[in-house]
Amino acid sequence: MLYLIAHARGVVCYAQSFNAANKSVIVAKKLFPTGIARFSLLSDAYLPLNERVAFINHHDALNISVKPDKLSYGTRDSVALHIEVKDKNGDPVNANFSLAVTDAGQVKKDSFGGNILNNLLLTSDLKGNIEEPGFYLTGDKDAELDNLMLTQGWVGYDWKEAFKPNLPFTFKAEKEFSVSGTVVNAFGKPIQKSNVLLISNRPIAFKDTITDSEGRFVFKDIFPVDTAIFKLQARNKNNKEFNVGINMDEATLPVFSPAPPIDPWYLNIDSSVLRNTQSKLAEAKAISSFRGDGNVLKEVNINSKRIVKGSRNVNGPGGSDFVISEEEIDKKPVKTTLEQLLVEKFPGFTPLGGMWSYRIPGGSKTVRLSYVWKLKKVRFIFDGIPIDRFFTPTGPGSDSRYHNIKPILDYFTAEDIVGIEVMENTKYSGSYHTEYAGMDAEYMQIPPDCYVYIEVTTRAKQGPFMKVTPGTALYKPMAFSIAKQFYSPRYTVSNKTTVLGTDLRSGNQTYY
Q1: What are phi and psi of 340, to 5 degrees?
Q2: CA 188 and chain centroid, separation
Q3: Which of 94, 261, 280, 503 is 20 to 30 A from residue 10's alpha carbon, by CA?
Q4: How far is CA 501 from CA 2, 322, 465, 498, in A?
Q5: Which of 50-59, 93-102, 414-423, 472-481 is the least confident region?
Q6: Cα-trace Rg, the chain
Q7: pLDDT per position as a tens digit, 1-57
Q8: Dihedral sign for Cα atoms in the order 367, 370, 374, 375
Q9: CA–CA separation, 322 vs 319, rounded Å?
Q10: Strand ranges (E), 19-135
Q11: What is the distance between the alpha carbons of residues 14 and 19, in angstroms, rounded to a whole number?
């Protein structure tokens, strides 16, 4: 069984399965809009075997006629134009118009050059430089268009290279996309004949299996997609989640070293050339920043706020200054710690301590007393449960508040967290300060505006004590990728676009 999928402009227009013995498959052209259509042939395992692009031309371009109201005009005379638009059958068409005015004495019309039409229908979907793209959309150019599709629209898959045996690489190509792991008990011992369930919304999947004698399980025949998230559930022999854990098999990824620094373009440049270049850069910047004349639109204020589902925010839904949503967290590797999430997302968050630190008398060692948000002390709340409630300060040193919090921030990872809310301004932090005022004596000594509260909502909804629901795991694999080859020109096309210098375009007025 083979599968044929065709899409145009990012929309699937045709999909059909057929027997490999069939010599041909007929596809109606009317299913596609005018432009490039890409046909992909997939195997019974949904792996791409080949691709072919074709240009569909329904000859349905609009016929536009523009006539002036008189034959000649004086200097700065008012010009009236009569514009008529018809379809290929000669029927009038409703449309919105825009008009760019240029000087015919400076700009030579090139019917074969690039324009909006051939860019949208042709050049934007092909690789390399296309000489005279307008040529392909004038008259009957079916043969020429097909030759262009076979060259600069060519795509292929090198299966011999992808599946060559005994490749001398540390990281070999995966031959299949699978999800695997081990089910263990509280002591790390494998659980035999444990029922394991795999659930996914994208791609839609619902599979189950049983672990072997070593507690191993594997799910195969899963269609690989990007940013896939799989939820796994395991049960013991009594079909209970108690005393059950899942250890997923994580892929070992190569480490890439950063490229060596490149010398700046102005190194050892002649001073006169440098001044001239800087002058042209300043001129180009001034032109690019010019916005022209027009009406300034009224300011629009968006008042809606993102909320975290299941959050126990004291201020209610949306009652925070900053939010890290579940969608943002899902884009991070599953083993990204909570501390790393906060440091990457908020530059003001730091574990360095700042003014909330203590220098040991008689020595140079500085002990961090707390996490800091800019100059404010950070207090963490997990599912409505403050971490500080279980901490009794006995003095600076290894028992500081920082050392009590850091193991928890390192313990929780991206797969355990649904959302993070930050309450910085007293509008939101004040209610938190009031809610937890009796937690320890420090609240009575430090003003409320010296605190920032961070509410963390976990998947388990059990506060800082349990990172995941027993017997469950969240797995975010990298998508299976097949090496793809594209058209590559063998010549160098000179860049005809002027980057620097004076903008000499004659078209200075656009009308709508």
Answers
A1: -65, -40
A2: 37
A3: 94
A4: 55, 44, 64, 7
A5: 472-481
A6: 32
A7: 888 999 888 888 999 888 877 778 889 999 999 999 999 888 887 778 888 999 998
A8: negative
A9: 9
A10: 35-42, 48-56, 63-68, 81-86, 99-101
A11: 17
Give the Cα separation of 353 and 371 in Å (integer): 6
3-state SS string for 132-192: CHHHHHCCCCHHHHHHHHHHHCCEECCHHHHCCCCCCCCCCCCCCCCEEEEEECCCCCECC
**pLDDT (tens digit per residue) in 73-99:** 888 888 889 999 998 888 998 878 888
Alpha carbon of residue 40 to chain centroid: 24
Q: Measure the CA angle with vertex 304, ends 300 and 309; round to 5°.
A: 160
Backbone angles phi, psi at 159, to 5 degrees: -70, -30
Q: At what angle do helices 401-411 and 338-345 cross, to 10 degrees?
A: 100
- What tokens were used for 358? 């203590």
| 3-state DSSP percent of the chain in helix, strand and coil, to 5 | 20, 25, 55
What is the pLDDT confidence band of residue 499, given thresholds at 50, 70 and 90? very low
| Per-residue 3-state assignment (H helix, E strand, C coil) for 391-445 | CCCCCCCCCCHHHHHHHHHHHCEHHHEEEEEEECCHHHHHHHHHHCCCCCHHHHC
- The total number of residues written for the chain in this structure: 512
Does pTM top 0.70 for this prediction? no
Token digits of residue 349: 């968050």
